[in-house]
Each structure stands twice: as structure tokens, then as C-alpha cells.
Amino acid sequence: MSDFFKGLSKVRYEGPNSDNPLAFHHYNPDEIVMGKRMEEHLRFAIAYWHSFAWEGGDPFGGRTFERPWFDGGMDAAKLKADVAFELFTLLGAPYFCFHDADVRPEGESFAESRKRLEALADIFENKIAETGVKLLWGTANLFSNRRFMGGAATNPDPDVFAYAAATIKANMDVTQRLGGENYVLWGGREGYETLLNTNLGQEMDQMARMLSMVVDYKHKIGFTGAILIEPKPQEPTKHQYDYDVSTVYGFLKKYGLEDEVKVNIEVGHAILAGHTFEHEVAMAAAHGIFGSIDMNRNDMQSGWDTDQFPNNVPEVALAYYHILKSGGFTTGGTNFDAKLRRQSIDPEDLLHGHIGGMDTCARGLKAAAAIIEDGTYDAFLTERYAGWNSAEAQAMLKGERSLSDIAARVEAEGINPQPKSGRQEYLENLINRFV
């Protein structure tokens, strides 16, 4: 145990009328929503990287946080693990997530880095057994070290590709060992800064080969979790090959991996791609590749991925609506890929950030459930597309009518359809009743 959170108690649900800033006001893990405990719906996870590895820097300034585990070796990594599981326990979070570089210091060789990761996994195993906190997913950091400046799987140097493959294998082994329910691949530098030095076709083939090997290895070791790709359009690269959900689906389809890989969708990445978060969730559900989410928000006045804690209930509610309509999470969950502001330097700020995020998600989930249980919105959608239930409409949709057949019927029957209102303002008002 450490004294980093000394004097702070476990966060409890006290209800919306409580004025305790270190209590949940809306997140009640035992509250039943649509027949299931709220905790089981939301499946909250805490991100190891932003909470414990990030130093508070920005593009124009360095470290603002002073953490006792910074600038240390394995002893510091062990202290970081103690503090991390203390935070997980204080918040009552059922899951956590990590990159290898978040939990262990870099070694002088790949072998040394791998051994250090496995030593931390020993510690994690004991802490998981002691606390009951589980691993939602593991992943590899294939973007921070300078060796990855030209990409990992997409690097022009095959030795970098091989190093990335070995790193992924090591992290998949640890993820399985710790009972992780997913394995995530985020291609932070799997893209290009200029086409002048880039062979797009070559790089995408390399990326697909790496992903195919990951899928093969999953089956070889009997990993039962999901393999997830996290889409992002840009930053740090000018263009990333996993731009958004639809781009990822097209990539998977091209290489025959659409039945093997799903997506982990981040709010901030959706915004950078020019989409809403609900759009990306709905698109993933429509393609049958929805897996998990990274919950955060961007500052609309900043041009980068600011990774702030969520506080927009309507935005979150619409996302959870689509999640619930698609059957809810299976192996996935709600991971807080969110970090404190660089001026929020106190230990309790980590609690404040997560408490607000968890309360926001709880309100969004309950609003989404209320929309579904009320039925008015779903009834509107059903009625809007009701014409497609007719025999002739179904024949067109199933390919039983040619273009000539349809044209002949339009003339013979004198079909002259008139527009019908989309009623957007009515629907916006309807949704606002619940949030």
C-alpha cells in the first residue's frame, strides 16, 4: 500500500441531492436498468496511461505532475501498480486497461522489456486476486519510441515490423494470462506524414498481414476475447489508415477479416474524423463490428485530441441508446481514455475526474433506457420505414426486380410520391425530454 491517496475514502453512491464532491450522485452500481445492474451495463475501466503514466505535458510545456513513481525503474513501477489498484478500488471500478509501456520501464533490449512486463504481470495477478478488479483489455505501445517514427506494422523497415510483432505477442500473452477480455490495436503511427515517401498499397498490405497474424495467434493460444481496432483519422500522423469505423470495415472486408475483428471507438477520435460519437457507434453496430468504447471528450476550440473527461449527457445518452439497441456490451466496456488537465495536480483530482465521468455515463445510460422503454422514438423510426415492409418493396430490396422492372411499374401505376416530413425538431425535443 502507498500513501498517495492518504485520507481519501472509497467513493460511494449518495444520490443526486448529496453535496459531497467525492461521492457518486448518479452512478449506483446496483441500480437495475432494463433488467440488469448498472455496473454490468457500463463495465467501467480505468486507463493506466492517462491516470498514472501521463506527466501533464502539452505541445508547449513539459511535466506539471510530480508523481513519486516518475523517473524510476522497477521499484517505481511497483509503486505505480500499488497506487493504480488503490484508485481502482476507491472508485469501485470493475476493470482497468494498459499498454506495456505504461506499466514497465523500457529495457535495453526487447528481451529485457518483455521480462519486465512479465514481472509486472506477476504483481497484477496478485492484485487482481486481492481486489477483484479485472482486465478489460491490454495493448502494446507501438508509437512512442523513436523506432516507430515511421510506423510499426507499416514501417518501411522489416526489422521494425518484426519488433512490433514480437511486442504484440508478448502483450497478448500477458493479456490472456491476466484474464483480459479483449486485445486492442491502435495504430498511432500507422499512416503517413507525406505521400512523397509513402507506398500506400505496400503499407496497407503490411498492416493487414500483422492483423492476420494477430488473429491467427489468438486462435493458437485459445484467447477467447475480442480483437479490437481503435479508429483515428490523424494526429500524430497526417492520415491514418484506420480513419473511422467505415474505413476500418472496408479494410477488414478487403482482407477477409470482418468476422474476426471489431472496433473500440473513442469519442475524441470520432470528432477528429468529422463525425459524432453516436454515428460511429451506430455505424459499427450496422456493420456488426461493435466491440467497446473509449469514453472522453474533446475541446471544440482546440484542434487536437484533448482527452477530457465526459460531461455531455445528451451526447453520451445517444451513444448508449445505440449500444443498448445493438444488445449492449459483451466483452467490451466503457474505458475512460481521459486525463486530468495539466493544472489539476492533486491526487483527489483523479477521483473528481472519474466521478464526474462515471456520473455522466450513468445519466446517459438511464436516459437511453428511458427512451427505449418509452417506445415513442422507436415507433417513429418503425413508421418512417414501414413502406419497405410491402411485398413489392421487399422484392426490390432482395434483388427480385431489375431497374427496367421498377421503371415499368412506376409508369404503369403512375407512381408520384410526395415528400414526408422528417420531423427533426420534434425528435430533438422528444430526446430532450429524457436527458
UniProtKB/TrEMBL annotation:
The record's listing under Gene3D superfamilies reads: Divalent-metal-dependent TIM barrel enzymes
Enzyme class, broadest EC rank = isomerase
| Residues binding Mg(2+) 1 | E230, E266, D294, D337
Q: Which reaction does it catalyse?
A: alpha-D-xylose = alpha-D-xylulofuranose
EC number(s) on file: 5.3.1.5
Q: Does the keyword Mitochondrion apply?
A: no
Instruction: Look up the record and name the cofactor or cofactors this protein needs.
Output: Mg(2+)
Q: Any idea which residues are catalytic in this one?
A: H99, D102
Question: What InterPro entries does the entry give?
Answer: Xyl_isomerase-like_sf (IPR036237), Xylose_isom_bac (IPR013452), Xylose_isomerase (IPR001998)
User: Does the record carry Cell division as a key word?
Assistant: no
Q: Name one GO molecular function term.
A: xylose isomerase activity
Q: Where in the cell is it found?
A: Cytoplasm
Q: Which PROSITE patterns match?
A: XYLOSE_ISOMERASE
Residue sites binding Mg(2+) 2 per the record: E266, H269, D305, D307
Question: Which of UniProt's keywords are assigned here?
Answer: Carbohydrate metabolism, Cytoplasm, Isomerase, Magnesium, Metal-binding, Xylose metabolism
Q: What protein family does this chain belong to? A: Belongs to the xylose isomerase family.
Name recorded for this polypeptide: Xylose isomerase
Q: Which organism is it from?
A: Pelagibacterium halotolerans (strain DSM 22347 / JCM 15775 / CGMCC 1.7692 / B2)
